[in-house]
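Entry:
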Amino acid sequence: MTPLIGRLLGRRARLRWLHLIVGGALLMPYFLVGTVFVGLYAPDTNVFTSLPAQLAALACALPMAAVTALLPTARPLSVAAARALCGLAPDRPLADGPGRSRQARVRCSGWFTLHVGLGGVISGMTLALVPFAVCVMGLPFLPALRDSFVPHVPPALDRPWVLVLAPPAGAAMLLALAGCATAAGALLAGRAPVLLGPTPDDRLAAAERRAADLAVRNRLARELHDSVGHALSAVTLQAGAARRVLDSDPEFARRALTAIEETTRRTVGELDAVLGLLRQGGEGPGTPAGPGLEALGGLLARCGVPVRYTADGDPGTVPGPVSAEAYRIVQEGLSNALRHGAPGSPVRLRVDVGPRELGLVLDSALPPGPPVARPGGGRGLTGIAERALLLGGTTESGPRDDGVWRLAARLPLDTPVKERR
């Protein structure tokens, strides 16, 4: 008996009962409008004392409630109430945010109509049955109460033994009411994940948000890899060269230290820009992060490897997003040449600015012998391909028969930056 009482009157049951009472309160404005409609068609009927009239008013109220629940803001309010009072299992998620799609609004409308409909019935039963059951339970103990009941009791029930059954009958009424409230609350809790849960459009929107967040992370990872990785490679080689000639050629060592200073200072500025994007939650579409092709001269002067640079066309006319991505592609290509190319061999860089396309070609001599695998490497070329793909372009990279590693990229100039996925 105790488990049954716990299910009927436990904390979860009481919260669900309260949730139904809230639904009954939300129904009242619609119900009062419904009584006006019923009164217009049956002016001689007292709606508040006639059960058929009350049911007719309820039938008028529910469609009005359903229509108002089609508003997008109805779903967050319903979800908040359901989470607080319905006692849902943690593995039954509900949707967050307003209902934007038609399917979400229709589902929320169905939930709200079910909530206020059941809530109106349970609220009416609570208001009517609780005082009546209490009076029935008090009949054997209150003569004045018995005298008021006698005129309304059928003669067949006007017997002394009826008074003996009155307390159990009143208690049974209250238990029946609790059972109805528990069943209605369980029905609402079971329907909540279906009617207030995420729709396919909600799941798609959530997947798009996760993809956008992942794209920002990948974007920032590429920026850090290209700027910081290039700087560290250049600084490492320049510091090693300065250490080897420190005693024999102090002037070269001084120039190497100056290049290290300039490289680190520039990289710190780029790192601050990337971290600023991280604090802001990403960057706007099409907004370039860091320098563009206008800063190519400074990059070539401090990259740590001799570069033979030729340009066909004016790099300054390249649109900002394309210019920023092209700069990073060249920077990563120079980093790869610095780390994996033949020491001391010049790198040839050609930039072709056409009417509709930007071409980048970077050739670096390969060292003699078989290639040496570098643990943890291999992300630079992937990042270059991703940058070109964002602009609708293509890249090619690999060794040629003449012992040269070629990196080539073609970037359209009239294509907007795609969404970063």
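The first strand starts at residue 307 and ends at 312.
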